[in-house]
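User: Last request for today: this protein with magnesium ion, please.
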Amino acid sequence: GTRFPRPARTRVMTVANQKGGVGKTTTTVNIAAALAQSGLQVLVIDLDPQGNASTALGIDHHSEVRSVYDVLVEDVPVADVVAPCPTVPGLTCVPATIDLAGAEIELVSLVAREQRLARALATYLEQTPVDYVLIDCPPSLGLLTINAFVAASEVFIPIQCEYYALEGLSQLLKNIELVRKHLNPALHVSTILLTMYDGRTRLSSQVADEVRAHFPKEVLPTSIPRSVRVSEAPSFQETVMTYDPLSSGALAYLEAASHIAARGAAQASTQEESS
Ligand code: ADP
Ligand code: MG
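Assistant: Here's the final one, the structure of the complex with magnesium ion:
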């Protein structure tokens, strides 16, 4: 396949939207697979107790497996819990198990409760070359998502082309602003992806137009179509990128990933010019 440009330094992206079912997990695993298939080293951190990203990547996450819970609550190094994705070389995953559901409460009483993922990840990245880290968030704005916001510099928001697409977005942006102000000055919304786009409906194109009007720079030019192949892939413990690489969904995710990689390379060269 084609090679995507390598970013100058690791890009850490938190995939967030406190609405459920908008395509966070699907976007995380398929963008991650597309970047890895294009020659980059990619780490997915599953931060949702449901463990859907782990499932889709074919990573064991039954309750005995050491997971992101152990990293957050027990100070276990990321290197001890990371697992390779069996279907995509270059792609690794920190799985989530169901114990993570309790972490939201357990974290409250721990020291540096908002920084635990950031610190663990920084230590890991000192030893391991990774081009992209994608963090899949649960559908809430609790301490798990805050840990993801503190660990990342970029927020990646998938938006479903449906009624009320923008509802709740102002709450999300407000929380990002709070984290930026108090915990992580580098945090910003870099990327928005329209998901489950249905070209036959006026609603999809109206939502797409509205989102583009609000966020002209952030919205990727590619939208992800609604496609049965995309929704089938996880039941085979695969991403659509290997399950059906020529399907419309896989091709759209590959194109979206190429835009993300191109933006990363463009940002790096602007930074070099200005320094
Ligand atoms: P979230 O992580 O935001 O809760 P998911 O990624 O789990 O959302 O997606 C919600 C549901 O929609 C899942 O059943 C998924 O398979 C399905 N889905 C996501 N993207 C598409 C798509 N492009 N076409 C068809 N189904 C999709
Ligand atoms: Mg999810």
